[in-house]
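Re-run with default settings, no changes from the original entry. Doing this only to confirm the output is reproducible before filing.
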Amino acid sequence: MKASPGLAILCDGDGRLLRIISDKGGLLQGRDQGQLFPAFLDHESLAPALDFLVEIRESKAAFERVLSLAGPGAGLPLYFSGCMADGAITIVASPRGGDSLLDEIGGLNNDLINSQRALARKNAELATLSAEKTTLLHELRHRVKNSLSMILSMISLAATENSHPETARKLEELDARVSAVADLYCLLNSSDSFDEIALDEYFSRLASSIMGLRDRVSLGMSIEPLIVSAKLAAPLGLIMTELLTNSLKYAFPDGGPGLVEIGLSVAPTTAALDISDTGIGFPPDFDIQKSRGLGISLVRELSLQIGGSYTISRREGRTHCVLVFPREGSAAEAGSP
């Protein structure tokens, strides 16, 4: 059975053919993209067609304009309607108003509306699930933070009750390590992001906490802004805690006076953490590679874990502990194992 004549086309704002949406009856056979809409019509329909386009541009829509096609549809008057949206013109034509072509287009429009409604329902369901997961994650992090606070209280109590200096010092170092993780969770809970940390804020918080009881040692900070994932922030926080506590331990055995400075410089593919002090430094025979201290061993392992490297050197009257690590998403990181 031969299809009922009718067509639907999409044109640009000047009326040039972009796409044939529907062509029942083969009315536009051989028509090429880029042709002007009036070129499809017979000679007598050219002037009315131009008026039809002007009306669409000015009013955004025009209806029931009777025009005749040239070529395969010659001599058959069609009712043309058009509308303009987002700079494009859609034109439909049928032998009479409301024929099967327009009914089909209306059906397609209804299908589109139903699909949009189904998509909206699905999006609402996903939004609900996302909100529930967000609530659960907040609750989990809150509980972890509370658990870490309880552990810190227990460590502090044990250190207070223990009279052995070496044991008390070990407990103090453990307290600093647990505090580094606890501070990370505090920042995550107060942040709008679930997986990103402002490293400058995190380092400042850690340093202030560690140096809070060192009255005779001043703290200087020059930290450039850097956003990292929580996965990277955790080892970086522990490394900084170890380097800073080691600096205080070895540089100022009598408690000062002196200066500790923390610097974080950011390059396109790497970042460098530099902790320096004006203290007495390490013993002349100290070899960082041979050191078996827990703190240095922890720094060594964590540096390898994040693909970084660290050095300890003495220059211009200061000891410098420098960690260089690749920035996330950088070419340096992509090339690391």
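The mean pLDDT is 78. Residues 36 and 246 are 79 Å apart (CA to CA).
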